[in-house]
Structures are given as C-alpha cells and as structure tokens.
Amino acid sequence: MELAFIEITIIICLAAFFAVIFRFLRQPAILAYILTGIVIGPLGLLSITNQDFLQTLAELGITFLLFTLGLEIKIKDFTSISKIAIIVAGVQVLFSFLAGYIASILFGLSLASAVYIGIAVTFSSTVIVVKLISEKRELHSLYGKVAIGVLLIQDFLAIGVLIFLSGFNPQLSEVAPLFKFGQIAIKGVILFGVVWYLGTHIFPKFIERLARSTETLFLVSIAWVFGLATLVSAVGFSVEIGGFLAGLSLASSIANYQIIARAKILQDFFIILFFVLLGMQMTFNGILSVFVPALLLSLIVLMVKPFIVMFVMGILGFKKRTSFLTGISLAQISEFSLITVFLGQKLSHIPNEVVSLVTLCAIFTFTISTYLIAGSKNIYKFFNKYLSFLELVPARIEESVESISAMPDLKDHVVLIGGDQMGQSILSALEDMDIDVVVVDFDPEILKNLESKKAHRLFGDISDLDIQQRAKLDSAKLVISTNPDLEDNLLVLKELRHENRRAKVVVMAFDADEAKILYKAGADYVVLPHLAGGRQIAKLIAENHLDKMDSLKKKDLEYIS
Hints:
This protein is mainly α. It has two domains: about 1-390, Na+/H+ antiporter like fold; about 405-525, NAD(P)-binding Rossmann-like Domain (Rossmann fold, 3-Layer(aba) Sandwich). It contains 24 helices and six strands. Strands 3-2-1-4-5-6 form a six-stranded parallel sheet, with helices on both faces. Helix 22 (about 510-520) links the parallel strand 5 and strand 6. It is globular, with a radius of gyration of 27 Å.
C-alpha cells in the first residue's frame, strides 16, 4: 500500500505541474492529465505496479462524473428540450457517426472498432464548450442556447449508448444478438422505471428530512451511489451506469445542488486518474500507425461535424453568423468519447490501438477547438463573405425576432447594449425622458420581456457590423453597454472613434485592469458594479439618508417582481 501511495502522489504532483502550465496556455486541464499519463506510461518515467488499483480509482472517477451529471438533469427535462436542438443534434449525430464509421472502415479497422470510433466522433465536450462560452459571457446568446441544447441531447444519447454497450458482457457472447438486445432493452426500461418512481415519489421527501445535516446527507448519497452501482453491476450493466442512475434519482430532491457541491470534490480527484490512465494506455510503439487516422478523424471533427451543424441550421432558418458560431463551438470530441472507448476496451470489444487513436484525436481537437471558440468572432469576420451559401432558406427564425420592432430614422438617440438586469433599470430611468432608445441584445427572451417598454428592440450581437448599422451608432448621442465583454466594448469604442466622436460612451467592466484599458480606448465612463454599489451605500451614510432605504427597497422589490 505504501508503494501505491507513492505512485498516486507522483501522479497527482505531475498532473498539478502540467495543469498549471496548461492554465497559462488557456488549454483544458484534461490535456494536462492525459499528458501526465503519457509521460508516466509510454515515455517510461514511472513503472506503475498497482495498475489494477489505478484502474479501479479511474472507474470511480467515471462513476462520480456520471453521478453529478445525473444530479443536474431533472427527469422532466427529457420532455422539455427544444425542438430545434433535437433536430440539429439528431442530424449531426447521424452524419457524424457515418463519417467516422466509413473513415474507420477505409483505414482497415474492424467493424466493432469502426462502430466505437463512429460513436466517439459524434459527441462534443459539454465541459469545454460550456466553460469557454461562459467565459465569453454568451451562454444566453442564440447560438449559445442552441449549442447547449445540442450538447444536452448528445449527453442523453451518450448515456443511452453507455447503457447499451455495458449490457454486452463478453462472457455471454453465446447469446443471440437479437435476444441479447431485447434483454438489455427490458433491463434498461425496468431500471429507468424504478429510478423514475424513486426520484419522483420517495427520495424528495426522504432527502428533505436529511438536508439539515450536510454530513449525513453526503454519506447517504455516496452510500446510495455505491449500493446502486453494485446492484446495477450484478444485473449486467457497468458500475458507471449505476452512478448516473443514482444521480438521476436524486436530481428532483431539494438538496441536489448541495450534493453536487460535495460530490464534485470526489469527482474531480478521481476523474484526474481516469484521464491519466488513458494517457498511460497509449502505445507509442505503433503511434505512427494511428497518427494519420487520428489526424484525419480530427479533420472530420473540426470541419465536417461543424459544417453539418451549420448546414442543418441554415435549412431551419438561422442566419449564417448564428450557424457558424454554433458549429464552431461543437468542433471537438467529448469526455464521453473517451469513456466509451475505455468501456469498449474493458469489455474486450476493441483493442488498445483504438483507445490510442481516439485519445490522440481528443488531444488534437481539444487543443484546436479551444482557440477556435475563443476567436470565433474574428474567424467569422474573416470568412463572412464566403458563408452566404449557409443561408439556404430565408432566415425565418432570426428575422421573426429582429422584426420585433422596425428601426425608424433615428438621430440623437440612446443605444443600450444589453437589456437584462442592469439594462432594465437603466431603461426604466430613460423612460421618464423624452428620448428614443434602441435596446440591442442577443437573447430573444430578454427582448420579448421588454414588450411593455418604450424602446426599439434589436436582436443581435453588437460586434456584428450589420447590427451596428441598424442601431445607427453613427448618429447616437449616448451609447451605454451593460455587456462586460472587453472585446465587444473595445470594438464599440473603436467604431465610435471613427464614425461618431461626439457620442458619450458608458461601458461596464468587472475589474480595474479592464477599466483602465477601456478608459485608454476612449470610454467616457466605466461602470464597476462593486464600486458603484459601494458608493451608493457610502452616499446614503454620508448624507444621513439611511431612512431612504425603505423607499429604495420598495423600488427594488417592484423591479425584481
């Protein structure tokens, strides 16, 4: 055991070292963990004597990952997914699978390997996409909502695939395939039926009684994970599927987010070992034999898969910009892709070379897609004039939003960029003044909520030149941006510096360093939320107007409601 502890210590320290480096390179930590495994395994830094023990810990990592995923999915979400996301995801999954499958057959791989690789290139990384779009503060943009919807569908499908594959135990290979499929389907329906009943009728009340004691709640939750995983394993499925079902059964409880917060600590630790193990299992003796196939599969993921998404969205009536940004966001494989081939190897369905191939594809696509997503707007500007073919039909969906109000011939008006929270309070103040206001936002729901406001509403992203022209930035007297995105605000300042020097510009920033950059770029005033809030309280204290708090509270409550 002491040797196992030393080996785990070396693995964790090396993973931490690479994670710091990859953090500076703005790359996903997953790549750091895979590199750790490569350095330890194929490059021979450390000879692991307790590999079975490490594999057990890795399986725990997948189990806890699926447990937390199940906790975040309400059972009712299965019936409340956008129709657009279902169509886009369905077509993308089908054609991506066919592309990966056909390419694998052309590489001379076996039928089973081709199926696994086809599945692997189908899914995109929820962790990476959500993280990067969230950092750009564009989760509520139209393309962000479609991308997240597609990822949610993919996650559901991935769970279904894992359940199906885990039911094919190689020790039961003498059973006829059709009969085996029927067995898996029946077992799956029974398991989901039991989970649905427990999650809707039993656990919500039971967990509510335990919620007062965090330690007891966490211990009972972990006991349920291990207990259900063992039971599921006994009936022929993998323990990882038991983890997902355990999470799904607790998702509707009042304390699901409290459980997630605790479980993520275990998940993050054990999942590191899973990705390290994947790196260790790569075989560099035959790396040249899988390098070219991995490169070609990466091109399918980076180019073909995004194009499928763009094409389908064009048919559905989206503009080329929304289609392009959504497609670019999905240009990588998923953690589920790696979990799938890991499971396939464990079940002896595929050889170790396929794991190396998919892992290499993950390294390529994770690295490149990170930069693609970060610079997607600039990439779109470069290719904009070549993308008109994506608008295969009139952009019905976005035009229906953009036509919320037609833009009249405006002059000396106010352009308000961002109509949520701070934007709404500013808009309420501007309503008392006899002045035209144009609200620009990329979230159609926000614009619909402003129907009662006396403002012209314009759907789109202010970084889009067409939106700038339609908002008539060149004739505005005041431009207010509640969008904290530094890149967008700098672009607005640059545009106004060339087209409308007389306009006053107020922008928002979250930290002092960004505020300095914006002032240097020509902003007349930069709003720092924490500073503005502090000054309001300080003013009330300094002017001895604490009695005004009740009236301010009343106004705030009216706004909140």
